[in-house]
Amino acid sequence: MAQRVVLAYSGGLDTSVGIGWLKDATGKEVIALAVDVGQGGEDMNDIRQRALDCGAVESVVVDAKDEFANDYLMPALKANALYQKRYPLVSALSRPVIARHLARVAKELGADTVAHGCTGKGNDQVRFEAAVAALAPDLTSIAPVRDLALTRDKAIVYAEEHNLPIQQSKKNPYSIDKNVWGRAVETGFLEDPWNAPIEDLYEYTQDPAADGPADEVTITFAQGIPVAIDGVAVTPLQAVMQMNTIAGQHGVGRIDIVEDRLVGIKSREVYEAPGAIALIAAHEELENLTLERDVNRYKRKMEADWAELVYEGLWFSGLKRSMDAFIDDTQKYVSGEIRLQLQGGRAVVTGRKSDQSLYDFSLATYDTGDTFDQSLAKGFIEIWSLPSKISARRDLS
User: Fold this and answer.
1) Fold match between 4-161 and 175-291+334-353?
2) Model confidence over 265-298: pLDDT tens digits?
3) pLDDT for the residue numbered 168
4) What is residue 283's predicted lDDT score, i.e. its pLDDT?
5) What is its quaternary makeup (predicted)?
6) Which CATH number is 4-161 given?
7) Is 123 annotated as a binding residue?
8) Known binder of ligand: residue 127?
């Protein structure tokens, strides 16, 4: 049996040309793998056929939308994951699920190599290859654009010479990656960080400046997972999709950031993730209601580390598994309802309730009948401030 390579296939120019390019450069048969993580666009069956027409010996299509939502987006939501406090890891979350299927298909179909269409300049090359290394350390990873000098102009010439079924349209000035969790846009005029984004950039969100009356939505959570919207049961995938629509109509989730890439350079990125941002805002507020103070404080510190690990391609690392165990344990009481008001690009929590709430009205109220014993406060403050008092005496001596 001939040696084989499994290519993560998008259906675009680079990966379509990459099928023949890989075969020519390595002598291996190429299997195309297209993974649906909610990116929309072309029918996946059309993409499958295009891979075969471009020379793949087999073409595999995987509908991973529910898997992506259940096993990757929900852990990110439980972690309130925002890289650099703003980016909800749109692309970083999709790479490990694609890598898992790359490793699986390679094993099932007898391949010894996997390939992807990343350049040598971005984060995704690291994410794909680190994930594959953790899942199937015997596999070799290669990247035609990076390793075999497949530039765009060479790809166009190759496609024309080999009559590949790829329609050449005017090149989009932007590099775009999208899935059900959000959409990432870079390059073009955005490479100058002084240039403001324009409306043509956006697809998932409406202009918040042109927004109309506010909408209210109530999200029900069970152990950190959204299970209903306005009282109607939803799956995780449905929750994300519905919030993309509802929050996107109000321009929620637009992010313009200068981002620290793993490879050591700064990159200007524009994201839109309406569902992700709205759900994280709701989930975080429910945690404020249901988690005890020290757990909440420690979890907030860990969330930044969790986001950095995932951003840097270490989804399958031992440290992340240990963090997941802690985060999962914190979610056992994160059940209840959060009411959000959506308007003008903002998702604002206006109400929260839970049977697991740690909010005690009789302790919190300032009205007559409160149960908080204020007479204990004086002694508490004296003990609390004692180390400061003792050190201050030394400093002043």
Assistant:
1) no
2) 999 999 999 999 999 999 999 999 999 999 999 9
3) 56
4) 98
5) Homotetramer.
6) 3.40.50.620
7) yes
8) yes
113-115 and 140-142: which strand pairing?
A: parallel
Report CA-CA distances (Å) from 291 to 10, 80, 330, 355, 391.
42, 14, 7, 12, 33
Every domain of the chain and the residues it spans: 4-161, 175-291+334-353
How far, CA to CA in Å, does 261 sit from each of 122, 181, 264, 359? 7, 20, 6, 40
The response to whether 158 counts as a known ligand-binding position is no
Write out pLDDT tens, residues 301-332: 999 999 999 999 999 999 999 999 999 999 99
Query: Where are the strands (E) in the chain, listed by range?
Result: 4-8, 29-36, 58-63, 113-115, 140-142, 175-179, 182-186, 215-222, 225-229, 232-233, 254-260, 266-272, 336-343, 346-353
Q: How confident is the model over 44-53, as a mean pLDDT?
A: 93
What's the CATH architecture for 175-291+334-353? Alpha-Beta Complex (3.90)
Q: Is 141 annotated as a binding residue?
A: no
List residues with catalytic annotation. 14, 95, 124, 175
